[in-house]
């Protein structure tokens, strides 16, 4: 059973290292989540349990993997942005993609019950992933803007669509026909005049999606210590600075976000 | 929020289609499974629960995804072989890799309790994956032989190593030193003379790993039917042919396996 | 002027090795050869000088580079097939492509006057190239058949087209209109009934293109030698076996060619 | 001869488009130019005829191809930098490489006699090429600096080496031994003390290589025109602005060059 006789097959592996000095984005999507969300009775148009679970999984990915500078999620997708200078796994594309989606998928099942309580998970879900490189900061910002604009467009549509179905009793086909060819302004108008809903007052998480960034957190802990000259332990308060993944629901298309968190795009990041 | 202004970022995605008429292998490995197996008290050198769970996940992958002709697993790794002629997702490498590892990872958590019972899963595990193309049947068979030869070499080593530690009371370092430079024959001899173990009698699953193939199964089912001319339902037996993923623990290095299952490599498969 | 400070830029080069055990085809095309052929007064529909020069360049490529098993040319294109097992330049795609086209291009100018005599070369021509991998022998044969079928279709069209222009006095647009929608049979019929030409009697080089293969040639040379016991040199005949690139104008779509030259596709070639 | 039956082979071609918004560098090297330069009696360490011919070929490449912003050459190599925003041939790597090397190679033979006069070209030379992407302007400048630093190091070495051989009568092996382990300062010292040569007075073209950039040139031409009210033609002077490829022999490592020609790196270039 000479292993060496077969080892030549390793030469068929190809080098898939990502070009240096580019942002590496891995975007993950739920597989067949339309069906999955129906089978698990997701609330329409937005299910808080599902959105929070997605974010919990994305946080786990950021904490377990290395060099992720920022992540952005909406609906059943999440994008993870690895630093330009990352040397993790020699920048091999397959490593980035598979670590992201496998960690996300196992987390989804692992944390399911924390969010869905009595709603049983019926089967293990799948996710797919892709990798894209962006050479400049502007390209990266435009990528994230593209996803957030997509979130807005879909959420506005879904909000009106499900109002028409749930409140006005239209069938899905009728609701679709009603919205055919309408512009954003038309949809806002329907929401306001027919359902008394001001779209701008809808929750930010629905309208903007979720941004995950690293932030320094000061934690005050209570610790028991025994000083040399004393015989008894005593409790003291200790302040510790930790870096944590924090979710935000804010606009990332305009400049304000990037001015507020310049470290995300900083050259030496 | 004009989405179109940002859509140019899609042009940065690259086409990663696999060369046609080649076998596509996706191999998956557990991430940091050395640590994982210790934390979850895996039995050494082989834990049946862990091996059966791996195989359950691999079966799920074969059933949920398309065009997988055969899979082979050992230890914390599994290789999935997609058919030469597969057109699934236009043969895009990223799709193959991410669907395999995400489905495997979510299944691992989902089915954990069926195999590990009271042993709690402490955190969601990660897996990595890679993709390799093999142009000829011989290349593919050599790839699978390479993995099975690897299984044999590792399992023989581990079997002796853990005997020395568990039965002879050596420390891991001492056991390692003892085995330094030994050949297969030496290891067999230690097992036999010191522990009265004939390595060839060790379970096939440990020595050969697990092969997953599709097999036609005749299922006899009981069905209630009501014939037109009768008033009461009556039970009849119905035989149904289904295709199922079946685990085998056999040699795949020699010709016998491939002669017995010629359909696996068949040109039009 | 520390070179080392800048050397990091080498990390941006990517590995473009071709998958092992595949045929590597480099196809080269003349750049803007429609214009080039007009400016250099190529005879229409086929110019023997131009075709022979193309073949001379292709022979030079086969002799100067390594591991080319067969080449096929027609019109202003040539395909070079590198052996499946070739390890030349670690199978790097860029090396294969650039060596082929640069050697071809320099040879085109170098040998121009041998074929075009007083017809001056007005400017240095350009060529483009691409690389394609074929895993199986059947794929490779189908590739070459594709190019030869293309040769046939184009040459039949061009033969009728130029007859209509040169002999019947049609304008190019009129000739094009006349041929619009005609099948092969129609074109043969026009040639025969209007110009008394049996297409099958047209030169093989025009109808089949040119195949270049390696053949063993016995050369009889006259050599002067001086035997030890003699004082004078004397002439003897010596037979030497050389391997030479030989042009053929034959069908390569059917089996006959491949049966006659089995060494081209031989596994260990 | 159904072409369509074989057309499936086109699916084996892969998309090799370069990542958008990156500088695309194609570097070309002479193949076996050590031997070539000996056979064609190049003057050592630098042959003006050969260097000027290389530059003539590079100018031709820049004029015939599209979107080349700058080129840099030394010895038997030339680097061509395509604009970040170039959409030429959909940014396909194979197109960029093969057009560059084939145009260069045919030009080399075509213009040979203009530079080498009675020195016959013995055979058609080959060139190889590679392609590298650089995401940022700094990366590109560092690439060009790397090549110019290489030029300096090699030229200083070669200048001393050939002095030792040509003037001091050392054999090549002796000269090599003498220079083993010497630093730049040592080599300058040998040149000065033994051969009375101040390296800094050596020609810039040898020390810095050749930079090719586009420059606007005002050309004054004499043109014959006939004004409507007159019967005779008369000569007038016309000033025309043309863009021309201009060679420079200057430092491109420092900032001065890039400040003088900011348009080369300009974002919208």
Automatic annotation (TrEMBL), chains A, B, C, D:
Query: Which reaction does this enzyme catalyse, per its entry?
Result: a 5'-end ribonucleotide-tRNA(His) + GTP + ATP + H2O = a 5'-end phospho-guanosine-ribonucleotide-tRNA(His) + AMP + 2 diphosphate + H(+)
Record flagged with keyword Transmembrane helix: no
| Any one GO BP annotation for this protein | tRNA modification
What InterPro entries does its record include?
Thg1_C_dom, tRNAHis_GuaTrfase_cat, tRNAHis_GuaTrfase_Thg1, tRNAHis_GuaTrfase_Thg1_sf
Question: What is any Pfam family matched here?
Answer: Thg1
- Broad EC category: transferase
Which intervals hold domain Thg1 C-terminal? 138-254
Keywords in alphabetical order, please.
Answer: GTP-binding, Magnesium, Metal-binding, Nucleotide-binding, Nucleotidyltransferase, Transferase, tRNA processing
Which cofactors are named for this entry? Mg(2+)
The free-text note explaining how the cofactor binds reads: Binds 2 magnesium ions per subunit.
Q: What is its EC number?
A: 2.7.7.79
The entry marks the following residues as binding Mg(2+) 1, namely: 29-30, 76
Q: Which residues bind Mg(2+) 2?
A: 29, 76
Tell me the GO molecular function terms: GTP binding; magnesium ion binding; tRNA guanylyltransferase activity
In this chain the tRNAHis guanylyltransferase catalytic domain maps to 6-135
Acetylation keyword on record: no
At which positions is GTP bound? 29-34, 75-76
Q: How does it assemble?
A: Homotetramer. Interacts with MFN1 and MFN2; functions as a guanyl-nucleotide exchange factor/GEF for MFN2 and also probably MFN1.
Q: What does the sequence similarity comment in the record state about its family?
A: Belongs to the tRNA(His) guanylyltransferase family.
Q: Which PANTHER family match?
A: TRNA(HIS) GUANYLYLTRANSFERASE-RELATED
Q: What does this protein do?
A: Adds a GMP to the 5'-end of tRNA(His) after transcription and RNase P cleavage. This step is essential for proper recognition of the tRNA and for the fidelity of protein synthesis. Also functions as a guanyl-nucleotide exchange factor/GEF for the MFN1 and MFN2 mitofusins thereby regulating mitochondrial fusion. By regulating both mitochondrial dynamics and bioenergetic function, it contributes to cell survival following oxidative stress.
- What is this protein identified as? tRNA(His) guanylyltransferase
